[in-house]
Amino acid sequence: MRRLVNDPYEIVEEMLEGYVRAFPDKVKLLEHDGRVVVGTHAPKKDKVGVIVGGGSGHEPLFLGYVGEGFADAAVIGNINTSPSPEPCYNSVKAVDAGKGCIYLYGNYAGDVMNFDIGAEMAAEDGIRVETVLVTDDVISSENVEDRRGIAGDFFVFKTAAAAADDGLDLDGVVEIARKTNANCATMGVALGAADHPNTGKPMFEMDLGDMEVGMGIHGEPGVRRGKTEPADDVVQEILDVIIPELKLAEGDEVCVLVNSLGATPLMDLLVAYRKVAEVLDEKGVKVHKNFIGSYASTMNMPGMSVTLQKVDDELKRYIDWPTDAPYFVQK
Amino acid sequence: MRRLVNDPYEIVEEMLEGYVRAFPDKVKLLEHDGRVVVGTHAPKKDKVGVIVGGGSGHEPLFLGYVGEGFADAAVIGNINTSPSPEPCYNSVKAVDAGKGCIYLYGNYAGDVMNFDIGAEMAAEDGIRVETVLVTDDVISSENVEDRRGIAGDFFVFKTAAAAADDGLDLDGVVEIARKTNANCATMGVALGAADHPNTGKPMFEMDLGDMEVGMGIHGEPGVRRGKTEPADDVVQEILDVIIPELKLAEGDEVCVLVNSLGATPLMDLLVAYRKVAEVLDEKGVKVHKNFIGSYASTMNMPGMSVTLQKVDDELKRYIDWPTDAPYFVQK
């Protein structure tokens, strides 16, 4: 593999140590649970606790989005592995301010199982925890509830966290998260695999020069594999799925996320964004704000995803809500 | 190659088109010269014009650092190729506000030649243009003046631009740029090559599992090639060069930039930062601020660099100076 690591079985701990050393005024690890990144601002008085999380290997997701105005805590699993129930529970105890908490994460079976146990443990302490699963990966299932969550996590986390910071109660925060998720659609394309530090090898095989449209962020199968095509054609293929999914029409407004899965350079993201902007322009769809960079990675996987987030005044206000989370960038 | 492109000979134009479409309130291309990215704020009254630039393929360097409080313009060359003299000159005409301009770029022969011609053309119009070359790549030459500029560009651009925004005259801005450069040291490590879109192939050969310590951002030879070693050992080897270079002693203060060359994930940068922080702690060197991400890339090259920028109150103030440049992130 082409990565610089130490003991691969310590990589998550070392990453977390580096992270809290880098931003000591913003985040810390729980003293009794090194897999919970907590904002130094949390618990915030009279605010619903917002907890995100999942397996490692998607940085800056999830740890980078903990901060005032964004998530209160992130629960961190091993690479491509759900966190265990204990840190899910501990995160609630750390950030609950008496208003209950919300768990927000991508829809994967392991995460659902363990976060649900965490919520049950919290319920025994009398703390209400609600869950909203992100399901933006449109081609992962015909059935919306069965879809996986990928880069759209970013928008769902952002708006729900802002709503909590705005003083909404738990039901209100849940409603914002569901509304955001229902108006969010993503599709990706992979051009190769990430290197897994534990094996020292690519997570799967893909011939040089091939691409797989629709692949998930853990290498889940997409809709088709074939020779790499021109960027504009691939972007058009993605938009031909996600624009109808959101039933976008003239006059609608969206936020755009062109996300690098890791090894796709900003140069190529900007080329792709150019095509996205052109197509949206032609349709009379307005771009409220765009995010072009690596927001939800698969370590060093070559590839990208395009997310469209349909927005109204309420969602725009929450996407624009200020935050000091270290890896939230908004210009 | 594992990249999504259209016509590779149009990639720079398409990237620039995507960029100005993405941030139309902040940047534009000159109408008569599509290789000059100008901030919509420029020219700013009574301010020295700050112009950065160089070859493409290092994004977000240079275009991402144009914005109010940062550079007024970026001059954009083809991939790994200096911009030609014409856009260097046109950038001056676009941003000069009667106080003269400064060119800031990494020390490469082609850039020096073409920017110098641009400055001569401007001089014929009675506009004074000064140049400060960035020379932070410490192992590229024994002789400081012969060293190349790499990720340290970021700090030199940032402080000089802030000094201009603070109202300093051209001599004052030059002095800040020189002072920053004199207190900046970088060393990188590559684990493979970027894919060049024009050839569709890696820019050079490197066996899987090898690394080259000290390699430059265009693949210039480093100090040694060998099997990839543990991250901590490589970081220590880098620090053993750049800490003595800056003569850092207990009580000194630095900014740290742990920079991905493209295909090195944030996970690995955070592991590396952990080691940097540990070593600086042991030496009693304080970290004022850190930057961990991809600030000066080589497209999709696997590898990273570590930059230490020694700072005093003046440089800290300029590094902290606010800016709305799209790819400047500071938390």
Tell me what you see in this structure:
Two copies of one chain form a homodimer. The first copy, chain A, has two domains: 8-182, Dihydroxyacetone kinase, domain 1 (Rossmann fold, 3-Layer(aba) Sandwich); 184-319, 2-Layer Sandwich (Hypothetical Protein Tm841, Chain: A,domain 3), CATH 3.30.1180. The first copy, chain A, has helices at 11-22, 85-95, 109-124, 153-165, 170-182, 231-245, 266-283, 313-319, and strands spanning 27-30, 33-39, 49-56, 73-79, 101-106, 129-134, 184-190, 195-196, 201-202, 210-213, 224-227, 253-260, 286-293, 303-310. Helices cover 32% and strands 24% of the residues of chain A. Chain A has eight helices and 14 strands. In chain A, the strands form three sheets. Chain A has a six-stranded mixed β-sheet with strand order 1-2-4-3-5-6, sandwiched between helices. A six-stranded mixed β-sheet of chain A has the order 11-10-7-14-12-13. The first copy, chain A, is an alpha/beta fold and 331 residues long. Chains A and B meet through α1, α6, α7 and β13 of A and α1, α6, α7 and β13 of B.
